[in-house]
């Protein structure tokens, strides 16, 4: 999701471009005011990826987003005034414009009726809220929507989505909301997404971090690649180091990662620091080095191609990696799961 003021069209489009370059497939922009709603048509038209308008409180902005050319609109039934009474008109407008919707249920804005029933935002409360709102759209024969039931606790979030998956066949958008600072939020998101995606639950994801949105996209891509749901680009295999290491593996791995960060091909590079696992891992990779005694043995596709001094390891790996990438001549494809910014 963008962090710019939506009314600042230039800044918002610039951030969308940065998110797109990072691998984002769909982007969401906030629309809390009339001025934001007025900016939507320009942003939706100029964005290179589909734009979702994020609507809370005011139902009139739902219609503004639909008419403004947004690809989809996220609605939060728990905090849109008299939402249930607006469903028929929203359905008609969305159908007429070919716009899809996301029913976004959040623990922090759960329908008061369900809070009273369950006492708090339990998995059952989140799922019931989502299914109730879905039924309102389905009563009008509108099915072009997906559902999210986000919670800051991965266990609660996982169970809520499992209930939904067992109860119907709706497309599901996954998210651990308010996941926290980058390290904590990454762990929470990876845990929850891994548990659900390996069950086949989830169609789009959004990583929520207290960090720049580009970092959210990077984490999302890495999660999908680790699960085999998006073709991997660069992968650095490096050892955690130990008393056997005879080189500074941490620095080597960081320098190689930085030097190859722009590669867009599925290349596995092994940076190893001892003679126990080093040669084996280096041979298994597309490109690798087994380091020790002030030298590095370079492997390409399992074959030794050179032995260089320690101070030449990084330069040599980067040179060979760029050559291999050029020979491969392809870019990583998109996976089945989209990343929503």
TrEMBL record:
InterPro entries: Dihydropteroate_synth-like_sf, IspG_bac, IspG_bac-typ, IspG_C, IspG_TIM, NO2/SO3_Rdtase_4Fe4S_sf. It catalyses: (2E)-4-hydroxy-3-methylbut-2-enyl diphosphate + oxidized [flavodoxin] + H2O + 2 H(+) = 2-C-methyl-D-erythritol 2,4-cyclic diphosphate + reduced [flavodoxin]. Its cofactor is [4Fe-4S] cluster. It comes from the Bacteria. Its EC number is 1.17.7.3. GO terms for molecular function: 4 iron, 4 sulfur cluster binding; 4-hydroxy-3-methylbut-2-en-1-yl diphosphate synthase activity (ferredoxin); 4-hydroxy-3-methylbut-2-enyl-diphosphate synthase activity (flavodoxin); iron ion binding. Residues 235-321 form the IspG C-terminal domain. GO terms for biological process: isopentenyl diphosphate biosynthetic process, methylerythritol 4-phosphate pathway; terpenoid biosynthetic process. This is 4-hydroxy-3-methylbut-2-en-1-yl diphosphate synthase (flavodoxin). It comes from Gleimia coleocanis DSM 15436. The gene is ispG.
